């Protein structure tokens, strides 16, 4: 048997052994990401209240770690499940990009002494990621109904 071209980049055998657990891990990390987003927002509001500029504000490390882990897991899922992984990866990357710009806009609000707003675009993006990750992980719940219709 010839090795796959990806065999040198990613240990496919090891990835195949965790393929059944991967959607549940992604769903768990997405939910952790939402919690860390709320904690990060609370941290940004506190930092803006403490300082008169955006210098007191810094990226919330647990949230950034959850973002990186989510990107890595969605790319790993793309290897195991190409179609679902591609859709999930696009949604996750969109969420991470919106997180990046939401943080920058919180800094602008702090710098201009404005009220710190909620990260609306990141919240909408995470709802989409939660919906799709939940669909991938919990499809077995609706599979009988889905099979009857489709």
TrEMBL record:
Residues 5-150 form the DUF7313 domain. InterPro entries: DUF7313 (IPR055737). It comes from the Archaea. Keywords: Membrane, Transmembrane, Transmembrane helix. The keyword Transmembrane helix applies. The keyword Transmembrane applies. Signal peptide: none annotated. The chain crosses the membrane at residues 20-40, 60-79, 85-101, 122-146. This is DUF7313 domain-containing protein. The lineage of its organism: Archaea, Methanobacteriati, Methanobacteriota, Stenosarchaea group, Halobacteria.
């Amino acid at each position: 048997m010839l090795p796959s071209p990806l065999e040198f980049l990613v240990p496919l055998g090891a990835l195949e052994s965790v393929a059944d657990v991967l959607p549940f891990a992604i769903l768990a990390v997405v939910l952790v990401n939402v919690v860390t987003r709320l904690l990060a927002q609370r941290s940004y509001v506190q930092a803006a209240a403490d300082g008169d500029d955006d210098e007191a504000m810094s990226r919330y490390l647990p949230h950034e770690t959850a973002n990186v882990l989510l990107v890595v897991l969605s790319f790993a899922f793309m290897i195991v499940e190409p179609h679902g992984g591609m859709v999930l990866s696009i949604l996750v990357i969109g969420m991470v990009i919106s997180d990046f710009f939401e943080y920058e806009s919180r800094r602008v609000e702090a710098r201009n002494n404005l009220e710190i707003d909620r990260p609306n675009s990141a919240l909408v993006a995470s709802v989409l990621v939660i919906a799709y990750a939940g669909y991938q992980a919990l499809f077995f719940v609706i599979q009988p109904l889905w099979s009857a219709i489709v």
